[in-house]
Amino acid sequence: MNNLMGQSDFRLLITGGAGFIGSALVNYLLEHTQHKLLVLDKLTYAANLAEVQRFKAEPRITLVQGDICDANLLQTLFASFAPSAIMHLAAESHVDNSINAPAAFIQTNIAGTYTLLDAARRYWQTLSATAQQAFRFQHVSTDEVFGDLAPDAQPFSEITAYAPSSPYAASKASSDHLVRAWHRTYGLPVIISNCSNNYGPGQHREKLIPKTISNALAGLPIPIYGNGQQRRDWLFVNDHVAALYLVLTRGRVGETYCIGGQNERTNLELVQQICDILDELAPVGFCKLSAGQRYRQFIQFVADRPGHDQRYAIDSGKLQAELGWQPAESLSSGLLKTVKAYCAAR
Ligand code: NAD
User: Fold this and answer.
1) Are 69 and 109 in contact, with CB atoms under 8 Å apart?
2) Residue 195 above 80 pLDDT?
């Protein structure tokens, strides 16, 4: 599937294309390719409605508000759009919500992925041998499926055993297993990627970085779970979507690719770095700090999340060696862009 970018007859079905990563992916595809896009999204609370409005005006995008659990809808869309490939991002994605109300995670992430896989298989089996070979089902997953990493352990890689901790991670792990089963059993040409924490403009305010920025700017407490020593690896969202397209077009069928930014930080270090950027930028029109005060003063430690994993870290060596991927953004440059974007959007 090399050199596809200019092909206008390449048709991509993107689930969850109105979400944080999905909308960044759609923007990447609009900028870098000529493909026709069908965005299927339920438009839950997590969807980015400003992006949805822009997508509605874009002739290369067909936007369908619908549920990946709706088998009849999927059958109709496969028949009418005839996708060359699927990039599956639709999911319930917030760990805290999965602890408070897991049912939607089981429904969308597991049953929804099953329904999509089965609709894709039925459609794929109607294709010519050449089209079958070229078809891809790309499943976008998370490093959280690997569970809690010991402080001195090697980063996760493609051969790390699954040990999910939260209902969210368990539902994503289940969906990964289903995708592999559809490859092994039915021969569906799948590719999976497991990525570390994404950040960037347009993320929902429930997530750590947007919440930190918006609370700091409002002069509200910035909550940090437990002692803030949980370690995460952070990747700028545009680097993730570039990796996804590379994996789709040049990755090997049936393989998994780990994607990460090699930016391991404790949550406390990350939040402090954001506060320091805000001190530097001193944006006007927001909460005023008195002379000598700093945004770090709003940091407040709160009761830890149940079952909270202490560490995630990911080794992207395979993606780098096989496909030549490198993230363009450092954590400092990505965070600066992100903070500026949130200040501008308020
Ligand atoms: P998000 O919550 O911002 O967006 C999810 C999108 O899926 C929303 O637009 C929502 O409306 C849609 N959706 C939810 N249920 C649906 C359903 N039943 N049918 C159709 N659409 C539905 O999530 P995100 O952060 O953009 O994550 C996208 C994907 O990437 C997810 O699969 C997630 O597990 C994975 N991922 C996320 C991260 C991260 O740090 N955000 C890291 C690694 C992997």
Assistant:
1) no
2) yes
The DSSP call for residue 289 is P
Assigned domain for 43 exists: yes
The rounded Å distance from CA 284 to ligand 1 centre is 33
| Dist CA 215 CA 220 (whole Å) | 5
Domain count, the chain: 1
> Tokens representing 223?
């909550």
Q: Which residues lie with the beta carbon below 6 Å from any ligand 1 atom?
A: 15-16, 18-22, 41-44, 46-47, 67-69, 89-93, 108, 112, 140-142, 172, 195, 197-198, 204
CATH number of the domain bearing residue 46: 3.40.50.720
Tell me whether residue 104 is in a domain.
yes
Higher pLDDT, 285 or 265: 265
113 token code pair = 């992925």
- Please indicate, yes or no, whether the overall pTM of this predicted structure exceeds 0.85: yes
Q: Does residue 45 register a pLDDT over 90?
A: yes
* Residue nearest (by alpha carbon) to ligand 1 atom 14: 91
In a domain, 124, yes or no: yes
In the structure, what pLDDT confidence band is assigned to residue 55 with cuts at 50, 70 and 90? very high
Active site residue 118: no
Tokens for 232, please give them: 């995460």
DSSP per residue over 147-195, as a string? -PPPTTSPPB-TTPPP---SHHHHHHHHHHHHHHHHHHHH---EEEEEE
Residue 84 CA to residue 12 CA, distance in Å, equals 6
